[in-house]
Amino acid sequence: MTMMLTGTTPTPLPLDQMKPWNSARQMLVCTSVTDEAPDVKTFTFAVEGGGWFNYMPGQFITVELRAKGGDLHRTYTVSSSPSRPYAIAITIKAQPTSIGTRWMFENVRSGSRVRAYGPSGHFTLSRNPGKKYLFISAGSGITPMMSMLRWLSDCAPDIDVVFINSARRPEEIIFREELELLAKRMPNLSLGFLPEARSVASPWAGLMGRIDRHKLSMLTPDFMGREIFCCGPDPFMRAVSAIVRAEGFDMGHYHQESFGATSIAETVHKQAREIVLDGKPTGVTVSFLGSNEEQVCEPGKTILETARAAGVRIPAACESGICGTCKVLKRSGEVVMHHNGGISDQEINAGYVLACCSRPTTPVEIEA
Ligand code: FES
Question: Which superkingdom heads the taxonomic lineage of this protein's source (predicted)?
Fold first, then answer.
């Protein structure tokens, strides 16, 4: 049996009568688009043809954008909770220079079909559980925190959480009303909003300004004893990590969401040079079984680069081994793969590799 879509309104079946979303085979259908704050919208999706969403709070999905000039892939953090598995939501702030956010705002409506991949990512309390949490974010960095808090409110509502969000102005605090409602339901949830500037639209009488040691201590006097999750622009994350590090915080309990593609890309290219200098692969054949294509992989090139040279389409987003979008099944042969968390040990044991950071050392056969 499957979940039937009537227009855009799904009729849910019990979970045990459906399978988890398989992004290799199933599209998503947008069920709603909601305004959250100025230039911020939440896009909620169901599985086309029926299914439920199996993920960890804080993970992200990769969305395929049908932009002019070819498909693009962009990663967006999930803001919904896996405790409500019939739907998945991403919350996006429009960025004037971003093709991806513009495309989403202009093209995705209730009823739109969207191809997406995942969920992926290691920024989740499921991998780093604590007895007490500090969720600290700036701007749209609030989205993974919201997923984790929604999950805790359903599954562990008594847990001790301090939730801090920094925004430019009070009206730009995303999810503010829902957070205030959650604080009434969760007896040990403490909220700390930190706008940087006042505004006529939304008067503010609380603490203001950029995060520093003094404000962090006022909002979380016991931050040294908490599992800390931090997400936001790089300067914000650098400031928070510098504050807690200077206090002697055990950084094994500090986690931040990072898409530091530049340094990772440099590492990947360095590794590529090393492979060439080692003289190991010298033009090995990559067979793309699903496309019935073969292509010689030049020394130091990845499976993704080889696929492109052969005209074989493998979806990719970060191209740095982070997002997991380019995961493919390797049927035979050996590769050197230097990933950055985009693939699990179980997937590697099952034969999967990330095409963007895997370099063949023997002829390989790939399902693509
Ligand atoms: S494209 Fe992101 S892991 Fe390969």
Answer: Bacteria
Q: Which helix (H) or strand (E) holds 312?
A: none
Determine the atom of ligand 1 nearest the C-alpha atom of 354.
4
- Give the distance (Å) from ligand 1 centre to CA of residue 264: 12
- Rg of the chain in Å (alpha carbons): 22
Closest ligand 1 atom to Cα of 326: 4
Lowest mean pLDDT, pick from 4-8, 148-152, 306-310 = 4-8
Mean pLDDT calculated for residue range 30-44: 96
The last residue of one of the domains, among 256, 280, 306, is 256
Over 90: is that where the pLDDT of 260 sits? no
Task: Find out whether 353 and 339 touch, Cβ atoms under 8 Å.
Answer: no
Find the CATH number of the domain harbouring 78.
Answer: 2.40.30.10
Q: Whole-number mean pLDDT of the chain?
A: 88
Residue 166 predicted with pLDDT over 90: yes
Q: Which domain holds residue 230?
A: 132-256
Domains identified in the chain, total number: 3
Pair (270, 352) in one structural domain: yes
Percentage of the residues of the chain whose pLDDT score is greater than 90: 69
Do residues 105 and 176 both lie within one domain?
no
Q: Is the CB of 326 under 6 A from ligand 1?
A: yes
